[in-house]
Amino acid sequence: MKKIFSFLICLTFIFSLAGCSEKNELTKDGYHNKLNVYNWGDYIDPQVLKDFEKEYGIKVNYEEYGNNEEMLAKIQAGGTGYDVIFPSEYMIEAMINQDLLQELNMDNLDNFKNIGQEFKNLAYDKENKYSVPYFWGTMGIVYNTKKVDTKIDSWNALWDPKYKGDILMLNSSRDTIGITLKKLGYSLNTRNLDELEDAKKALMDQKSLVKAYEVDTYKDMMIAGEGAMALTWSGDAMMLIEENPDLAYAIPKEGTNLWFDGMAIPVTSKHKKEAELFINYMMRPEVSAKCAEYVGYSTPNKEAVKLLPEEVRENESAYPKGDILKNGEVFVDLGEFTTEYDRVWTEIKSY
């Protein structure tokens, strides 16, 4: 009987520990104390993560990816447990079509009111059911005025043999192929195989001029004066110019990619309530402004813009005047035709 009694006491103790363990996984507000965030490299002010953890008692596990396709592959593979991701517009559309995103509960996102009307209900997520805007901008050429002595106003500058070995391109298939299509007078969303082959040939012709294909390290190279010019996103350009005043940014006359990155919750998330809490927090004006200043990209948060320094608000490279949708073409999901872009990119890289 003593053995049985002792066994029952031990069992009670074990279950009580298990209960404590489960209880410790929750904050006093009933939130799980962890959140798995998957974002682009160098794309958030680390301090806002610390502030979120302190305010809500939720530990943020933070990981970075290099491009949309890398992120998509992980989500498609499953088992990642990511709760918040930051896909670009065409990837948001693709993930919606593949049932890889959860619908947002707008009742938990009252700070959505801070987002400018021109950034709401865009074609890739017409009712903002699955995403909210995080950053936006253009694509162009950042160049070193000490090395480049001609006016940069065309994508053709990236094919100028004068700068052989001094040109940096993005290691990103949609972006690099996209601007090449614009250079040739085509849509960056073309589904025309002949046009895509023209872009492939142009990039193969350019390859001997290219110093490197990069996503993040090209920034250090441009700051250090190790490149004459680079294909870049406007936000990166603003940051680079701040670090090196010899740099300048140009949006080519043939047209540009007008891009949007959003915040979304993948189907892998097991902490939707916490994820929406985080997304709502990120839409606070002071938080959004802090991230915009840290990263250098343009915020769609109209209240956050008011908190930015005047020289930033008035910089038309970062905040173009007028109808932003006339400044460029937005990527769309190409569906199954994406495999053709992947094929072309593989052939270019292996050439």
UniProtKB/TrEMBL annotation:
Recorded coiled-coil stretches: 186-216
Gene3D superfamilies (UniProt xref): Periplasmic binding protein-like II (3.40.190.10)
CDD domains: PBP2_PotD_PotF_like (cd13590)
Cell compartment(s), UniProt: Periplasm
Keywords recorded for this protein, A-Z: Coiled coil, Periplasm, Signal, Transport
Signal peptide annotation: 1-18
PANTHER family hit by this protein: SPERMIDINE/PUTRESCINE-BINDING PERIPLASMIC PROTEIN, SPERMIDINE_PUTRESCINE-BINDING PERIPLASMIC PROTEIN
Protein name: Spermidine/putrescine ABC transporter substrate-binding protein
